[in-house]
Each structure stands twice: as C-alpha cells, then as structure tokens.
Design goal:
Keywords: Ethylene biosynthesis, Fruit ripening, Lyase, Pyridoxal phosphate, S-adenosyl-L-methionine. This protein is α/β, with parallel strands linked by helices. The chain is 42% helix and 15% strand. It is built from 19 helices and 18 strands.
Length: 499
C-alpha cells in the first residue's frame, strides 16, 4: 500500500493502488483499510455463496433442507485411519518420548529451520507418494504455514512488484489472493480449452508469454497445479516436458504445486516434475535450480487445520531466503513432533495412502454416476477431491451471465453450494467445480437426488430460448419448487432405509 502525504481532496475517500481498493475514513483519527478487489465470479462464489451456506447449512437431523457444502475441497474420508493411529500411539499425541513428557522441550524456542525429524519424515512421505521414483533432500525443504504461505513466499523470492507469472486456466481462484495481494505480482492466464480437455499446449504458452510482454510485464515464471485444481486431472508427461522446455528457452522459473499428489486414484498415475528433470538429466543445471515444488498435508492427509506446507527447491538462495521469510508463518513444534511420529510409521503411511486413494475412487464414482443419471457429464478425471462438471446444456444462453444465473438457482433453489467456472477464470461458460470428499455417502446421495430433480423440472418448462422463459428467468417455477421440496421431504423420510 502506498500512503500519500497531505490531506485528502474534497470528497475523496477511496483510491486504487496495485489491485487493492483503499478506503479511508477521516475523523478524529484517520484510519486505512485495504479491501481486495476480487474478480466478479470469485467474489460471488467465495463470498456470497459461503455466507448463504453459513446461514443455512445442511444438517441431517436439524436442517435436512439446508444447503449442502460442495464447494469445499476438503478430504474427510480417512479420518478414522488417523484417529486409529492416534489411539494406538498415545505418546505422540501426549507429547511424550519413551513415556517421558517432552512438553517443555517442544514448548520452548525452536529453530526456524524446523525439527530435523519432521523434515526427514515429510521428505520420505513425499517420495512414497511418488512411488519412490524421486528423492528429496530434507535440507532443501522449507516449512511454511500451509501451501498458501508457500506460494506467496515463492512469489516474494522469485519476482518483484509488477512482474508476472503465467497460470493455465482454469485455476484455483485463491491464487488471485495468494500470489498477488501482498507481492503485487501479476497473473497472466494460459488459456486452455475443453476441445483438448484443458491440456496445456505450446501455442497457449507462447500466446500468454507474448500477451504479458505486450502489457510491459516481465515474465518470471509459470505456476501449475499438478494434479489440477479444479480439473481433477494430472499433467501428462508431454505437458511436463513442454513446460520444462518452455522455461528453459525463456530462462524463467517453474513452480509445481503438488498438494494433491497423494489423491491420484486412477490411471494415469501421478508424475512429478522432479521425475521429468531426472529423466532428462537436468540435475545440477540452471533449469534444475529454476524448478520449485509446493507441498502440504492439507489434502493428502486431510489436515488443513494443522497448517503444514513446504517449499522444495534446488536453489540454495531460494531456500535461504524462504527460510528467513518462514519466520512469519512457522509450523508449531508440537505439530511437527506429532506428524514426524505419524509419517515415520511406514506401515501406517503405506496403508493410509492405499486406502485413502481407494475411498476417493469409490466416492468419485458415486458422484459421476449420480450426475450421469441426472444427464450431466464430467471431465474425465483421475485425482483430487472434486469433479469439473459440464452444465453448459442447462444454460439459458452461452454467456457468463447465464452461468451465474444457473449457479444462483443451484445454490438457492436446489441447495447445493458449488463453484462456477468463471471463478476459476474458465473461458467457457457452463463449467462448475463440485467437491465430493467432505461429506458422508448419505449426504452425497441426497445432493444427487436434488440435482436430478432440478434437471427434470427444467425439462418440463418451456424452451430456454423462448421469450417467456427469459421474461420469467428470475422467478422460481412453481412446479420446480414443488418438486424440489418433495425430494427434500422424501430424502429426510428415507434416510434410515438408505443406511
């Protein structure tokens, strides 16, 4: 934020700097508040719908007609495995070593580098998820308070204010906040399309690079999520090789956000960018030092509340700078001690990875099958906690306004909180991200009955292109409203039979 000297001009109370709207209130004391400027779709999907969900959350017993949360990428499918391990290992959760309390040791000051035992266990867990095809040096790991902190820290380390990173669309909407707010780094989209299942192409990369140049932005790198959020797909070897060749030719960085690497439940299997570097014999080269990995335990282990993230880099300067910056977002020693014990238990980690992926595969199949029965298709995916859902046939017109109208109906009338594609900067209206791993099977089945009833009700109304449809587009169709209420009542009455 830039603070100007001198009084405000008459009537002046706001101005804009570097993508932030600054509001000023002048009284006995002048105060400043920085209000982030969201893209329209993001503001709606990350603010308005979440508020509506909080006002009316679904509860099987207390509020069976409430809004079901399907916009939260949270993994709640394997908590029982974690809880069983904790019950069997009371020393870890009780902060003991060989039966003796080490609470005082953990509570006192710790080095910013993190506990060596935890960093070693985390590095080995990352290797295990990647099929032990690559190795990670724990000395090159920088611990951060989640992946959010890791991504922002890398922006500070690699770019200056006004520099740009290229991101393939659609991408996680939170990047507009994580990468830009404080760093003032710009994002330039790599436009990917449904015609090739949103894969990254050489032309798309070059077009994004040239667009940035035309905007007088210096491109410092490319950031990808692998597996992709929101697509739920892994990057192919062809795409990874393309990216490595691209950053080599341009002399820029590559950040691979691999926080969903352990959620791959179907073929093709996960390929880390580190594996590609090894295959191309690029170790100890300039390119080797310009590739960085972001990881966390929020998705693979289902522990977002623990705030455990990491940066892995082969560049010693990046590691040194990121380590210093990590002092602003450390992982507690107690958390590190507990997780080092858990991740060092190889029998547990092997079983957890396998069982968690099996459960994700089963739950993903349930969602896809339920949507198919409602006449809705998904992008074929093999990873993640969500599906990229195609509802273009339900739009009243091919526009983002029609997408938002459909999204509002799904939130307010159907009672499903999902994310519109426009919030992910998708260039094609009608795509939505739908999460499936943060609820019970019963709740997911209820959500599928609701969406099926909604689609059926739309087919009984007049054609979307008819004038009367557009005239009444903002009104709730009585037949649709009655049908949805009937589904809600039916689902509440039959819950016991479903079990």
């Amino acid at each position: 934020m830039e603070v100007r000297d001198g009084p405000l001009q008459s009537g002046e109370n706001t101005w804009t700097r570097a993508g932030l709207k600054v509001q000023v209130w002048v009284g006995s004391v002048t105060t400043f508040a920085i209000v982030p400027r969201f893209p329209v779709g993001m503001a709606l999907s990350f603010s308005a719908n979440h508020k509506e969900y909080e006002k009316n959350p679904y509860d099987e017993d207390r509020n069976p007609t409430g809004i079901i949360q399907m916009g939260l990428a949270e993994n709640q499918l394997s908590f029982d495995l974690l809880e069983s391990w904790l019950a069997e290992n009371p020393d870890a959760s009780g902060f003991k070593r060989n039966g003796e309390s080490i609470f005082r040791e953990l509570a006192l000051f710790q080095d910013y580098h993190g506990l060596p035992a935890f960093k070693k266990a985390l590095a080995q867990f990352m290797e295990e998820i990647r099929g032990n095809k690559v190795t990670f040096d724990s000395n090159k790991l920088v611990l951060t308070a989640g992946a959010t902190s890791a991504n922002e820290t890398l922006m500070f380390c690699l770019a200056d204010r006004g520099d740009a990173f290229l991101l393939p669309t659609p991408y996680y909407p939170g990047f507009d906040r994580d990468l830009k707010w404080r760093t003032r780094v710009e994002i330039v989209p790599i436009q990917c399309k449904s015609s090739n299942n949103f894969q990254i192409t050489e032309n798309a990369l070059e077009e994004a690079y040239q667009l940035a140049r035309k905007q007088n932005l210096r491109v410092k790198g490319v950031l990808v999520t692998n597996p992709s959020n929101p697509l739920g797909t892994t990057l192919s070897r062809q795409e990874l090789n393309l990216l490595v060749s691209f950053i080599t030719a341009k002399g820029i960085h590559l950040i691979s956000d691999e926080i969903y690497s352990g959620t791959v439940f179907n073929s093709p299997s996960f390929v880390s960018v580190m594996e590609v570097l090894f295959e191309r014999n690029l170790t100890n080269t300039e390119v080797w030092n310009r590739v960085h990995i972001v990881y966390s335990l929020s998705k693979d282990l289902g522990l977002p509340g623990f705030r455990v993230g990491a940066i892995y880099s082969n560049d010693n300067m990046v590691v040194a700078a990121a380590t210093k910056m990590s002092s602003f977002g450390l992982v507690s020693s107690q958390t590190q001690y507990l997780l080092s014990a858990m991740l060092s238990d190889k029998k547990f980690t092997k079983n957890y990875i396998h069982e968690n992926q099996r459960r994700l595969k089963k739950r993903h199949a349930m969602l896809v099958r339920g949507l198919e029965e409602a006449g809705i298709s998904c992008l074929q995916s093999n990873a993640g906690l969500f599906c990229w859902v195609n509802m273009r046939h339900l739009l009243s017109s091919t526009s983002f306004q029609a997408e938002m109208e459909l999204w509002k109906k799904i939130v307010y009338e159907v009672g499903l909180n999902i994310s519109p594609g426009s919030s992910c900067h998708c260039t094609e209206p009608g795509w939505f991200r739908v999460c499936f791993a943060n609820m019970s099977e019963e709740t997911l089945n209820l959500a599928m009955r609701r969406i099926k009833a909604f689609v059926v009700s739309r087919t009984t109304t007049k054609s979307p292109n008819s004038p009367s449809h557009h005239h009444n587009s903002n009104k709730i169709n009585p037949a649709r409203k009655s049908l949805i209420k009937w589904v809600f009542r039916l689902s509440s009455r039959d819950r016991e039979n479903e079990r």
